[in-house]
Amino acid sequence: MTFAREGYPFMGVAVLVTVVAFGVAVGRRSYGLWLLAFLLAVVTLWIAYFFRDPPRAGPRGDGLVVSPADGRIVLISELDEPAFLHGKSVRISVFMNVFDVHVNRYPVSGTVRYMHYNPGAFLNAALDKASLDNEQRSVGLDTGRYRVLVRQIAGLVARRIVTDSREGDVVAQGDRMGIIRFGSRVDVFLPPASIVRVGLGDRAVAGVTVLAELPV
Length: 216
Prior knowledge:
Layout: H1 8-28, H2 31-50, E1 64-66, E2 71-81, E3 87-96, E4 103-105, E5 110-118, H3 130-133, E6 136-142, E7 147-154, E8 161-163, E9 170-171, E10 176-180, E11 184-190, E12 195-196, E13 203-204, E14 210-213
Helix pairs in contact: 1-2
């Protein structure tokens, strides 16, 4: 299994603390310390599990929009997107819980034309207003024919959004875009005539699940 590089410091510290705990437990022959060491080992395994970064292959194509995140579809709506699409758009929101893979992927191929970071609150990321009020980082992609905006949104627990994108980068659909640590949400804003292929409550897999088709 491969792991996200952002998780290496966390995994390294967890392994070190666990090894020390087992060493102390052996030296003192204490059942309480053995229990503590065992619990720390479980936490270490969970941290490694959280930062897993499995390879993803799925449908690809200029007319397809694949999910940028693993998780559950919590919002599908039409609204104005003034920052990059400059008008009406279709928004699809994917909520990630702490058990989902948290590496985010590009939903379409194109050129990064817009980057914006907005510090904010840490409300429940499943709420509609989290898209405006929470800490977030937006990436605007120009496919050559359409504009697509991807927004990484922090949540109650998440406190670190990592985005690999730089303005001017040419990116490929399904490639790694970044990561949000410890639970959150990713929104995708599409042209208004896009055909949505998922429903509320559906599970999505980053780089695999087709969320929508762009207008012909």
